[in-house]
Each structure stands twice: as structure tokens, then as C-alpha cells.
Automatic annotation (TrEMBL):
It holds the Pfam family NAF. Its EC number is 2.7.11.1. Belongs to the protein kinase superfamily. CAMK Ser/Thr protein kinase family. SNF1 subfamily. PANTHER family: CALCIUM/CALMODULIN-DEPENDENT PROTEIN KINASE KINASE-RELATED, CBL-INTERACTING SERINE_THREONINE-PROTEIN KINASE 11. It comes from Lithospermum erythrorhizon. This is non-specific serine/threonine protein kinase. ATP binds at residue 50. The keyword Membrane does not apply. Its cofactor is Mn(2+). The keyword Transcription does not apply. Residues 297-321 form the NAF domain.
Amino acid sequence: MPEIKQSPLRPPPDHPLLGKYEIGKLLGCGAFAKVYHARDVRNGQSVAIKIINKNKIPLNANSMSNIKREISIMKKLNHPNIVKLFEVLASKTRIYFVMEFIKGGELFAKIAKHGRFSEDLSRKCFQQLISAVSYCHARGIYHRDLKPENILLDENGEIKVSDFGLSAVTEQIRQDGLLHTLCGTPSYVAPEIISRRGYNGAKIDIWSCGVVLFVLSAGYLPFNDSNLMVMYQKICKGQFKYPRRMSSDLRKFLSKLLCTNPIKRITIDEIKSQSWFKKGYIDVRFYDDKVEENNNVGKSLINAFDLISFSSGLDLSALFNDKCNSMEDSERLVVAETSPERIIEKVEELMKEENGRNSCVRLKKMKEYGVELQGQFGKFSIVLEVYQLADKLLLVEAKRIAGEAIHFDELWKKKIKPIILGQLSTNQQGIPVASELSGGGD
């Protein structure tokens, strides 16, 4: 009997991932990630885990930024028609997205197997898609890669938008008020992306939604050609043919969605007012109505590292820093599940101990939950600040303000950080959290 080789991304079946998840069958794979079905050993819940191999990610700032942005965005999305991100875990070489498992699979597979949908079913799916997209746009998030492959169906036939890897946020908009990154899937991209004029994120999502609706109701793409340039010409000119069986109302509606002029293209609010769209439509109440609290994705330091809050006690900053072994980097972050007062108390105890060893290290309290540490003869200065992420969940940031990196390394890496990580010595399963990173297990 031939030996069964274990995937390097997949832990052994009798060894739950980080003590939490039993990995099942492979659901899909990409250039540097694979998605598996998994079971939460704590409650038996089915989840999908996207495992990203850090070693295969292109070594450029954009790749890392995209991953951090995707996590930050997905954490803030809480809508019935968007795949939910539960938590993010990590080892030295892997990043794990633990997400809602959608049993029905991709919308693309459903169309490929059964053909076009009825107009009523197409309308129902499209209404849910617009509800999800409207929710994202209200929070300054633009998907930029909407297509049937990125739309899942649950067991009840409800859609779930997934894969926010190419998403953009309002902070990426340039001074001309437009986005400029060329991205998307050729058959679904809007004309203004092809023409490289810069584009409005909301308008290109609406175009892609129009292509999706056409595919749902026709069973094939409106713009398709084996020659990519010919297909792009068709997109820019808006050249496509409606199937004979398509109703005139749907044709009129699609013409507004697939308008090549983004200024004249229909808006989300206008879509919701159209008679074809409104038939049987029940407006979904968003899971959270505090748009203003979620409309600042990526603005603050905490948002940029929101992923850490799902992995209490794990220092994930090294996963996104190719120079993670060098203490020349002036910032370090770590998460602990404790109170701010407890962190300060532990640091004060350390300073007393250091001073007891004739070390001239002084602690000076700053702000509400911050301290400044000054070394002997003023050779170095460290600012240690504590941010409250959630109830008893803290993000601790250390900055080297002055002095040599070696002193920063000695005090922060070897003394202060271990104390902070010691606040979470074990996770819920009794497994040492610190060893999950240091052990190098995947």
C-alpha cells in the first residue's frame, strides 16, 4: 500500500491545529493558500480554514498589506450575506483564517452544473448580493472582485459573499477621488479599469454585480472571447447580446448596470428603487447599525493589527515583517488577556527587580495606560503603551524612542515581553500559547 503523504500546510489528522481544529478535506487552493473544511474540537462546529503559507507570499509590501487589509476588513463585516471571519491564528510560517463554513459551495459550480437560474431565483440572489455590497459600501469598503466564484450558497440557498483579498478602503482613494490599482477578473472588470482612467470603487462593484446577474439569468458571460484584447474591446464598447428568453424589464435593468459610462451607471440607491429589483424584496436589517464606528477601516494602528485580537498572547507582528529577527524595527506589538493595571503592575515589579540589581532603569507613567522607561545615563528610552481592544484584551506597543537597539532588545524582548506573554500562559485547552509560536508547529 503506497504511503499517504501529508500536505505541508495540513497538520496530522490526530493533531488538532493549535489544539483547536481538526482539519478535514481540501475545499480549494490558490497560489499561496489552501482552504480546508475543519471541525472545532471544543463544540463540534464546522468551519472553513484558509491556510496561508507565508513563505510563498511574494516578498513585497503590497502582498503583506493586502493580507492585513483583508483580515481587518473581514473582522468588521457582520452581515447575513457575507462570510463571517471567526478568528485568526498563526504559527511561525502559517496564517490561519477560521471562517464560517458554507455547505452549498460556490455559486459558479451551481450554475455550471444546473445552468441558468429562473428570473425569480436570479432576482433573489441579486437582492442578497446588493444587500451585502450596499453594507460594504456604507462602511467605505469596495470588494473589487465580485464574481460567482467568490459568492457561496448555504444549504438554504442564501448567498454569502467571500474573498476580500482584493478589497479596497476609502483611505486608498487618491486626491483625484478615485482608486487606481488594476485588479479584478477579466470577464467581470468594468471599462474604466481597462482604460486605466482611475475608477470609483462603488461603481466598479455595481458593474460586476451586473455581470453576475447576467450570468445568473442567462447561464453564460455577457463578455467572453478567447482573445483577451477582443474581450476587453467588447467590455469598453458594451457589446453583448441578451438571450431571447430574457424579459424586457430585466434587459432594461441590466442596461443600467452595464452602462459603460460610470457617471451614468446606476447607483445602489437607484438599484433599490427599480421595479424589477423591488419585487418581493425585504430589506435586510444590518447586524450592526453603527456605520460611523466601522467606517474607519485601516485608519488607526489598532485597526491595522486587528488580527491580533483573535490570537490572545501571540505576537503576530513578526508574521508580517521580513525583518522580524532584527530589533532595529522601532515598534513591537503583543496581545495579552488581562487588565491594563495588571500590565503596569508587572512592569513596575520588573523595574524594582532591575533596580535591585544596581540597574539604573526608571519608570515614568504616561497618559492613562502608558509608561516611559528610561535607561542608565539616559542611553535609551522606551515608550510602552497599552490599548484596550476588548474587555480584558489588550494590545501592548513598545517603541524605541532613543538609544541603541541592543538596549531595547535586552529590556523589551528578553524581559518585558516574556512577562506580558506570561499573563496568558495557557489557552482554553491548557496548551502553552507561547510554545505555539516558538515550537514551529503548523
